[in-house]
Design brief:
Layout lengths: L2 H11 L3 H19 L9 E2 L10 E9 L3 E10 L3 E10 L1 E2 L4 E2 L7 H13 L8 E7 L3 E5 L2 E4 L16 H11 L5 E7 L1 H12 L3 E7 L3 E7 L7 E4 L12 H8 L8 H6 L1 H15 L11 H8 L12 H33 L7 E6 L1 H5 L3 H13 L6 E5 L3 H19 L2
Parallel strand pairs: 2-7, 7-10, 11-14, 14-15
Antiparallel strand pairs: 1-13, 2-3, 3-4, 5-6, 8-9, 11-12, 12-13
The structure holds alpha-D-glucopyranose.
Alpha-D-glucopyranose (GLC) binds next to helix 5 and strand 12.
């Protein structure tokens, strides 16, 4: 490949400082139309949860259903800190063990029985527990313990869950398993869990976000829905960023073409595929579909080439690493632009200090990711950037479920 085509790719994937400002403004506008229930790409879903006070305590079960695996935990909250006492992590699909709970051939009952089994593995038989459930998909909520799945995202398509109340599906499975002492009392998005956990540690947290297999953001709004509440933006569905030809190819081959366009440019589930499409096209590689995972992408960025990549000549390796860097940098910059849009919505002059609580393997582990995000925030926020700190809130979505359960119980006990 000539240097010119690498240069061309650099242009194709570039998000300039001006683009950042434009995307932030478009995102803010779309949030505002979403809140006004106008035609929008952002769903702005109410959570019926506010930020915790930090003093919540107790022992809770946290269920984190993310898309790649499920995590059942017993979490002890001790006031501004938590400890995971028990944990069971299970992949949702495992080719070696010959099961897949994510495809259309699996029914809701089977999926939720699998989840109940993981919960059974961490609880003490006969003991009472309240359970917080982090369910990382777009749900319409009427209250904090009722959530109807609007549509699966992240290429999951288990039958019989869309349109159903997820909390009821879980409650029924717990009863089938004999776990009648485990009471699901709250259901929340993983971004909301991350913000709950971030705010439990530091009250300045106002945004929660996931940069992992999927991508999404929530924020604390003091008044939008008539009461202070955390709002799940479902930012992955934002459609205000122009697609490159590689994005369009990826979208066309996805489960739901036309949806989750931002997520398909930002999230770990898709980044490797974009690099693969660009590398096959521009530097003549012949990598098969889905062979270039986020883990491989991270390895290439750290200079490690495994499997068929070992065979590549040095120049191709360098070019593949460069394409990987461009795609990862674009992801971090796009996410940063949307955070700037949220900040401008909640605090137009960014007068206050804000913490953006972030969880997810992409942010935590992808080489160069957090640095690229901070650079972009610096560019888009200019002199206000010192007011904003992006902070890794590890396991926030799991701990956040326990914190949400504790906060709800505290509120109910305080009710006259
Ligand atoms: C997808 C889901 C969203 C979730 C995100 C991160 O975008 O639609 O609800 O928060 O993934 O897991």
């Amino acid at each position: 490949m000539s240097t010119a085509s690498l240069l061309e790719l650099a242009k194709v994937f570039a998000i300039t400082s001006r683009d950042l400002v434009k995307i932030a403004a478009a995102f803010q506008k779309d949030m505002e139309s979403g809140l006004a229930c106008q035609h929008r790409s952002l769903k702005m879903l109410p959570s019926y949860l506010t930020k915790p006070g930090g003093e919540e305590t107790g022992l809770f079960v946290a269920l984190d259903f993310g898309g790649t695996n499920i995590r059942a935990q017993v979490v002890e909250l001790a006031g501004r800190r938590w400890e995971i006492k028990q944990q069971r992590v299970q992949l949702l699909k495992d080719a070696a063990a010959m099961y897949d709970y994510t495809s259309t051939t699996t029914k809701a009952e089977a999926l939720f029985d699998f989840i109940a089994a993981a919960i059974a593995a961490v609880v003490e038989p006969g003991r009472d527990y309240f359970l917080g459930h982090t369910f990382s998909f777009p749900c319409q909520q009427q209250s904090f313990n009722q959530a109807m799945l609007l549509s699966w995202t992240k290429e999951i398509s288990t039958t019989g869950v869309e349109g159903e109340d997820v909390n009821q599906l879980l409650t029924a499975a717990l009863l089938r398993r004999g776990l009648d002492k485990v009471t699901p009392c709250v259901i929340l998005n993983d971004t909301v869990g991350t913000l709950m956990a971030g705010a439990y540690l530091d009250a300045r947290a106002s945004i929660g976000t996931i940069c992992g297999t999927g991508h999404n953001t929530c924020y604390y709004d003091p008044s939008a829905y008539g009461a202070p509440m955390i709002i799940n933006i479902e930012s992955g569905n934002f459609n205000g960023v122009p697609c490159t030809r590689y994005d369009s190819q990826l979208d066309a081959a996805s489960d739901k073409p036309g949806s989750q366009l931002l997520e398909k440019m930002v999230a770990g589930r898709y980044l490797g595929e974009i690099v693969r499409l660009a590398a096959n096209d521009a530097i003549g590689l012949t990598l098969p579909p889905l062979s270039f995972t986020a883990e491989r992408l991270a390895a290439v960025l750290s200079g490690a080439f495994d499997g068929i990549l070992t065979e590549l000549e040095l120049t191709k390796k360098q070019q593949l690493a460069e394409i990987s860097r461009l795609v990862v940098e674009r992801s971090a910059r796009l996410a940063a632009a949307t955070y700037a849009g949220v900040l401008r919505h909640i605090d137009s002059e960014v007068r206050r200090e804000h913490i953006i609580a972030v969880d997810g393997s992409l942010f935590e582990k992808m080489p160069g990711y957090s640095a690229a995000m901070n650079r972009a925030l610096g560019e888009v926020l200019g002199s206000k950037s010192h007011q904003v700190k992006v902070s890794l809130t590890k396991d926030g979505s799991g701990a956040g479920a326990a914190i949400a359960a504790a906060a709800i119980l505290k509120k109910q006990r305080c009710r006259p």
